[in-house]
Model the fold of this input.
Amino acid sequence: MIRIHLLPGREKSVLRRHPWIFDGAILEKNAPAAAGETILLCDSKDRPLARGAWSPASQLRVRVWSFDPAEEIDREFFRRRIGQAVKLREELGFMDIAGGCRLIYSESDSLPGIIVDRYGEFAAVQFLSAGAEFFRETITELLMELPFISGVFERSDASVRQKEALAPRCGHLAGKPLPETIGIVENGMRFETDLKEGQKTGFYFDLRTAREKIRQLAKGKKVLNMFSYTGGFAVAALAGSAVSVINADSSAPALEQCRKNLELNGFFENYENICSDVFELLRKYENSGEKFDLVILDPPKLIPRKSAIVKGCRAYQDLARIGFKLLSPGGMLVNFSCSGAMVPELFQKITADAALQARVNARIIARLEQSPDHPTLLSVPETFYLNGLISVVDR
Ligand code: SAH
Done:
């Protein structure tokens, strides 16, 4: 195995079990290891620290597979890690055969660069790093060995692959071929997903907890569901006896799937789908004076890079300000950020400032985060990304 050495003093993060090693911390930046090959990571005095995957094209030059430098990175290693990830989802009660969940969440399941979402009997896989790509066959075969998986499909079209010099790859990998659409049941709600075209791998499993909360709170409410995508919150709200829901998204195919999902759950009326830019639409509502009892704002990542933080925060605040303004007395705002750079304290501050600007008095009644099948690894705070607040204004 090729030995890669850290520069003096650069082993601290490894000792704290953080799996990312940047090129600047490495002595042999241009070591002759192949993309994805397993290397032995050593400190500057040649003491082994960990085994990791070499990624020659990426600034993130090594991702640690194991902090035990003696642990073989082989089929058995991946079998153990996948087994542990599956066990957790079983314990969470997320392994209903008709349902879905995130089965493997990359660093959080100590499998950096590997994401697997389960849609019933199908696994949708993303190989996002050179190391993950290197073991693609092994991982696919191990997934096929799981008794509840009968087909594996790849959705490695995320932009992060570019940083690893990997081209996008999508398609059938093993087992049963994928149907055009696949249905899953979550807490009695039915959702259909286009696994080939949908965002991420098709469905936002990270919002499961939020859907439950919205269902609980929706009774009797007139709901405005902004950035609705395929209508997860719309179904949840109507399942919770909302009076009406307006969904808006800039994607027409997402709204078409939203309509299908609502119909799948027996909702043929009391909703409206609007294909529009949400920022424009919200201004229209602001001017019209129409009010809502529950406003949901779930935009895409508005801080895609650290450098976009000021602009992104302003956008989150703008959204929340208008959201608060559209509330009827006693109404609720549910606002989210899925930007990794947003920390909970900052999101609360932005929401507080938005309430001030909207001249409302609001109190937080719930804090939301990514569902537990997207756990936060304590040693890798970057695995936390989803903030949500539910705030209630005065009557
Ligand atoms: N709440 C959704 C997930 C939202 S993902 C759910 O429950 O599943 C973010 C959505 O925002 C995507 O569907 C995307 O099409 C949409 N979007 C992005 N920018 C937009 C904009 N400016 N106006 C309207 N929709 C937008």
User: Anything to note?
Assistant: The mean pLDDT is 96. The pocket of S-adenosyl-L-homocysteine is lined by residues 204, 207, 227-230, 232-233, 249-251, 254, 277-279, 298, 300 (CB under 6 Å). The two ends are 67 Å apart (CA to CA).
